[in-house]
Fold this sequence. Notes:
This protein has helices spanning 62-65, 78-95, 114-119, 131-139, 151-159, 179-189, 203-208, 225-234, 267-279, 287-290, 292-312, 324-332, 365-371, 384-390, 393-396, and strands spanning 16-23, 41-47, 54-56, 103-106, 124-127, 144-145, 164-170, 190-201, 221-222, 237-245, 251-258, 317-320, 343-344, 362-363, 375-378, 400-403, 409-410. It is α/β, with parallel strands linked by helices and 412 residues long.
Amino acid sequence: MTPAHCRSCRAVLGAPLVDLGLQPIANAYLVPGTETLEQRLPLVVRTCPACLLVQADHAIPADALFTADYAYFSSYSASWVEHARRYCEAMIARFGLDAASTVVEVASNDGYLLEHFHKRAIPVLGIEPTAGTAAAAIAKGITTEVAFFDRDTAERLKARGVQASLMAANNVLAHVPEIGDFIAGFAILLKPEGVITFEFPHLLNLIEKVQFDTIYHEHYSYLSLTAVETILARAHLRVFDVEPLATHGGSLRLFVCHDAAAHRAMPGVAAIRAAEHAAGLDVATGTAYRDFAPRVDAARASFQAFLKRAKAEGKSVAGYGAAAKGNTFLNYCGVTAQEMLCVADASHAKQGKLLPGTHIPVVSPDELRRRKPDYVVILPWNLAAEITRDMADVRGWGGQFVTAIPDTRVLP
């Protein structure tokens, strides 16, 4: 078997960080009756010993994962829309953005972020490969280029006169197979003193908090500041500030500019470098990497024990949030539709479908209320506060909320 090579530096990858077995595509929700057509593919994550980029070693092309009927619409999460609004206000204030500026978002989804700049009369351009979400953005008046972003797309847009004062890329850096080509596009489209912000879940939290459910085929990479700085340097880009964020279980927001730009390095960069060094993320053979797989197995055992107890007690279990992370988790735990009667989700695009792999039906929140399960497992645990607030009536019928990462807990 040909060894897997790093997506960034092409070095031969090392032993698995974790092997999650055969998994379906996490966002490939099924129409009932099509279950036999489903594919399951290996999901193995490895660390590059040379540049320390943690990555899935599969070769599934991006256009097979981000299809026209891609089911994730950012606007369905109120907390995420509010996060985008606050981002908009902060960037306008910090960088003096106005009607003479241009804001470009890569992976702009349904316009959830750019609409806030648009309302402030700041010119915007979204770049989004999935036709369904792009159409939703266009319907809001957000100019959107339906394309995958890379060096060629950037060259094409630059030839049309597009140059960005601010480029935003939230939770997309992990989603690209050719990460070097992707980063090169930002350097092409960015004005000489322009700024790029990248947001991504921090590898440090994935490992320390056993967030293995954030691993799925769409996530080609799992990112540390250490690894991302190496990739940026090849495109003559540098990080001048870093902000830790609470989103997605603990993320980083990187502020990036051209090497020659005047932006001064801020203390946040050194602070995150130091945190990664203390955790051992800058050494490929460190204990942080070696100890991860056994802790993943312990998280699975904890949830399987919970399901066994619930069954023995005659109690019903449902889920809330048909999120990709939930699909990784449920499939790794071997959960079936006999053990979890349904999963509720506010997205109309998912309701009436089946979760990939487990084939658990996705229902509306109102249908969950009608069924009144004893336990409601919050699959997108990063939205637990929002979900427990919106579904407060669960406790009214005597139901209890459950989270399962890093171990299974019934919430008080």
